[in-house]
Design a protein that fits this description.
Elements lengths: L6 E9 L4 H18 L4 E6 L15 H9 L3 E6 L7 H15 L4 E6 L7 H10 L8 E3 L3 H36 L8 H8 L3 H7 L2 H8 L6 H17 L6 H15 L3 H13 L3 H14 L10 H22 L1
Parallel strand pairs: 1-2, 1-3, 3-4, 4-5
Helix pairs in contact: 2-3, 5-9, 6-7, 7-9, 8-9, 9-10, 10-11, 11-12, 11-13, 12-13
């Protein structure tokens, strides 16, 4: 049986040579944690710079090597026992700058274990944390077991946040699918995979080359192509590990409009902007959707569907205008 794709939560360990055994225990602990959460689609991985001993010359330890690990990490755990590791403060400072830039990740926690050795490197580092600028990162632990428990608790909180974000994006796809008939050759396989819970595979089968190839035909299938772009945009948003998912989604909504600039597609884009709190853009799109709205002829079988969409656009437009005043 093929293993399902997991959402990986990466932990970067910034610590010195003296904490090697602690790191090994954290690796073992997270392997057990992963086995318990694999059924929910989550995996926990440990990252760290592997040679604090100095066996590798400092000239060969470029910032790129450790920054790549920190860049992909959801959490950075700085572990201080008797002294600060050779590269620990450097890694902490890089993670801090990254967090201040993104305001989201990585989550940074400095764990200090009890010590009887008043080492100067430790004293200066902890004093800096207590200076008031960084003290919210500092977490004292009673012993190594307490450290393991606190690290696991933080990682589980990150997992809960990711689960909530993923559920919200999946609900967005479900709402869009239920609101519109988008079943076509381009979307059928992706819809089936999505309904079976294979979100990443559903994203992959909506091949951009195939969609673009269909788009170049410029035939009556324009609506199908636009629907495929919209579905792809919605599925991009379920890939919560991808920091470019919002930019990718907006490009796809733009492509959907280029393929079929209808009130239906305009509504989908506007609704997305509304959820992103981009109210001015959403209002402009809703207003254009109303201007483009095709009034169905009496007796037309799709008149009820069109009337419902017309009412929905007016309802959302009125709601945004009220909250943005």
């Amino acid at each position: 049986m093929r293993r399902r794709k997991l959402n990986t939560i990466d932990l970067f360990l910034a610590s010195g040579e003296e904490t090697k055994d602690i790191r090994k225990e954290i690796v073992t602990t997270l392997k057990k944690l992963s086995r318990g959460h694999e059924k929910n689609g989550f995996d926990f991985q440990v990252q760290w710079w592997e040679d604090e001993s100095g066996a590798v010359p400092e000239s060969r330890r470029s910032q790129d090597e450790y920054s790549k690990l920190i860049d992909k990490s959801d959490m950075v755990a700085v572990i201080i026992k008797n002294r600060v590791g050779k590269y620990t403060e450097e890694e902490f400072n890089y993670a801090l700058k990254l967090f201040q830039k993104t305001c989201e990740s990585p989550k940074i926690v400095v764990y200090t274990l009890p010590t009887g050795d008043d080492d100067e490197s430790r004293f200066k580092f902890v004093k800096k944390l207590r200076s008031g600028e960084f003290d919210y990162f500092h977490q004292k632990v009673k012993n190594e077991q307490d450290l393991y428990l606190q690290v696991i608790s933080e990682l589980l909180r990150i997992k809960e946040d990711k689960e909530a974000e993923l559920k919200e994006e999946i609900a967005g796809v479900e709402e869009m699918v239920s609101r519109r008939n988008i079943d076509s050759e381009l979307t059928r396989e992706a819809l089936e995979l999505f309904e079976n819970g294979n979100y990443s595979k559903a994203l992959n089968v909506l091949d951009m080359d195939v969609i673009h190839k269909s788009a170049r035909k410029l035939s009556a299938s324009q609506k199908e192509m636009a629907n495929a772009f919209v579905l792809r945009a919605r599925l991009e948003l379920t890939d919560i590990k991808n920091e470019n998912r919002f930019a990718n989604a907006e490009k796809l909504f733009d492509e959907a409009l280029a393929a079929s600039r209808t009130s239906e597609i305009m509504f989908e884009y506007a609704y997305y902007c509304q959820k992103q709190n981009e109210y001015n853009k959403a209002i402009a799109l809703y207003e254009e959707a109303l201007r483009l709205f095709r009034k169905p002829a009496e007796g037309n079988s799709d008149s009820k569907e069109h009337q419902e969409l017309y009412d929905l656009i007016n309802q959302e437009l009125e709601y945004i205008r009220n909250i943005s005043e």
